[in-house]
Amino acid sequence: MITVENAFKDYPDIVSFDQMREMLHIGKNKGYTLLEQKKIRSIRIGNRHKIPKVNIIEFLNQDSYNNN
Fold it and tell me: What DSSP line would sit under 16-64, residue for residue?
């Protein structure tokens, strides 16, 4: 299981859209799809998304659970 303590230590607690894409190794379209479908929860400030790192970890853990 991925935890806050052992995952993405080099990233801040709240990441940008591009940082999220880098963390997940995904493109822009997939990134926007995940946010629009609320699979990864984000905070929208103007036209920018701010994503708590915890939400990315929750998404990865949920996705891993569903695939097993």
Answer: EHHHHHHHHT--HHHHHHHHHTTSS--EEETTEEEEEHHHHHHHHHHHH
